[in-house]
Amino acid sequence: AQTPARAAVSRNLLANTEFRDGGAGWSLREYGAVDGKVTREGYPSIRLTVAKAKAPVDAMISQVLPAESWAVGDTLTFSAYLARGKNPAFTKKTLPTLALYAVVNGERTLFPSSEIKKLGDIKEAGTKNKSSAWSRFSVTMTVPQAAAEVGCLLTFPQNGVMHMAQPK
Question: CB 3.0 to 4.6 Å from 43: which of 8, 18, 65, 107, for a disulfide?
């Protein structure tokens, strides 16, 4: 996630975006893992895997931004490269969501990417893992009043595999 509001130069506010330190700084939960075999520009990806779920699940990876890195009114942009494994058919309700979020009064509000409209928008990872097998998506939000926490996430509710690389 980047913020141009307080500095003339945007900078990456996320920790461990090349996943050189494994999943350090990221909440991978039960579905996420660092994958050194599926790479982008030589850097590992995070793989979200959902298998044999009879109903959509909330597989998610996320990172909370340090409180000192943002302020109310800042404009933040979260972007990441996504690639998919061979997945079954998706519906609009079961597409992955790339989002920024803000927690206000104990409730998390998502600012999701509207760029992911269908599974075809996300390229398949393939076996050679070339950079061209990745699709870049981004989402922007303005930090709302009374925000107690700000972060970013990728959710994946359907059986299959999704990869995320080089988030910022």
Answer: 18
Of the candidates 13, 73, 24, 72, the residue with the CA atom closest to the CA atom of residue 46: 24
Asked if residue 11 lies in contact with residue 5, where contact means CB atoms within 8 angstroms, the answer is no
Q: Is the distance from CB of 89 to CB of 44 less than 8 angstroms?
A: no
Please determine, for residue 8, whether its predicted confidence score (pLDDT) is greater than 50: no
- The full 3-state SS of 60-115, as one line of letters, equals EEEEECCHHHCCCCCEEEEEEEEEECCCCCCCHHHCCEEEEEEEECCEEEEEECCC
Report phi then psi at 64, rounded to 5.
-85, 135
How far is Cα of residue 116 from the mean position of the Cα atoms in its chain? Answer: 12
9: confidence class by pLDDT, cuts 50, 70, 90: very low
Over the stretch 28-70, which tens digit does the pLDDT of each residue have? 999 999 999 889 998 999 999 888 877 778 889 999 999 999 9
For the record, the structure tokens of 88 come out as 């079954």
**pTM beyond cutoff 0.70:** yes
